[in-house]
Structures are given as structure tokens and as C-alpha cells.
Amino acid sequence: MPGAARRQLSENLRQVRERIRAACERVGRSPDEVTLLAVTKSVGVDVIRHLIDLHQTEIAESRVQVLVKRAAMIRELCTRQRTPPHPGPATEPRWHMVGHLQRNKIKAVLPWVEIIHSVDSLRLAEDLEVHAAKASRRIPVLLQINVSDEKSKFGVAVGAALHLAEQIVTLPHVSLVGLMTMAPLTDNSQWIRNCFARLRELLEEIRHERFGTPEMRHLSMGMSRDYEIAVEEGATFVRIGSALFEGIEQFAETSP
Hints:
This protein is an alpha/beta fold. Helices cover about 45% and strands about 15% of the residues. The model has no long low-confidence stretch (mean pLDDT about 90).
């Protein structure tokens, strides 16, 4: 990855982190409460490697086959880097699945991900339970909510969320840690804010019903167009792609 692209990526990352910090400051939050996820679907493995060098180790993908391929490549590169004569340990990223997950892809993705942000049905959660039990692990998940009620979006309707959350928390190998949503693609910032505020209220309602566990504290919301609003409304994960990779499009690759 050429030096100019490295410098551009470093500056983009600095700006995004600074805007997260400023948004937190406006509402009296600590920036430590917000985790930046780099959504890397439009860039190559070299860019992901440089992100890791810049201490951006929370990486997200929206397609299972892309995540699995890239995670395997990065693990191999990190293993090589930890082998003499290379100095020092190489940090492996934590992978987040943020796109729609089909039930037949669970087995492939489960060994690689730390958190799944897009659980949107009881059947998907039950299948995750089966595969996680076989792997002897407890997989953290977020319940995806279609707050904007758009037909083009995946996610559970707001009115069905409490009942589904109550069912998911009974699964011993699935840990419900929060909620996720996507705001509408609009220039109406108040509509966007209302969607994020509603997700936060929904999380509070679930916790108030007493079946929300102490682990259930995350709000995954906000992308490149609207992450500052999301932070102001309580986001603990923001999912950023284009704002990080602006100016390095020449290093984009076709997703495998």
C-alpha cells in the first residue's frame, strides 16, 4: 500500500475518531463508550492490514463469504508476522458480522466472528444456539430492529421486539447483548435522530422488563452519513465504511 494511501487512511481514521469524540462531548459521554467498526467490504486486505497497524482492530463485514476469506487471510498474515525474524506480536482483529445472515451460513461464519449484529428471527437465533453449543461457545448477538419500518430493510418490527428478545434470552449459548438498526437514507436529520432515539428507548424498555441481562447494553447504529447523530443518541457501536476509505478508492477490490 503506497505511502500516500497510508497517510490518507490515517488521516481519515483520525477525523472519524475526532468526530466521535466531539459528538460524545456534546452530550456528556466518554469516547470510551463508543466502539468504531471499520466496515471494509470495499477495500483490499492491504488496507485492512494497515488499519490494524493503526490500532483499528474492530473490523466488520456484511457478507459471510467475504468475512471468512479475509479473516483467514489476515490470520495467516498475522501468524507469519509472529514468526521469527519478524519482531513483536501481530494483533489479530475482532470480526463483526453486520449484514443479513442466512441460516445456512452460520456454520461457516461462527468460527471467525466475535459478535453478530443482525439476528432478526427466532429461527436464526435457535440455529445459532445449535451451532454455538456444538462449538462449546456462547455467541454474543444483537437483535436487528427495523425502526424506520422500511420494506427494503431487514429487521424485526418494533412491536415484535420485546417478545422476540424475551425468547432469545432463554437460549443458553446465545448472549443477547443489544440492538441494531439502520437509519433511513435521507437528508432529514430529525427523522434519523428519531430512529436512533427509538432504538435507545426500546433497549431501555427491554431492560425495564427485567429479562434484559446486564450484558444487554449495546446499540449498534450509525454509518458514515449519520454516525455523529447516532453517538449523540447513545450508540456503542458505529459502523463506518466510506468515511474511512475516502480518497483511497484505487485500492478497492471486487469483493470475493
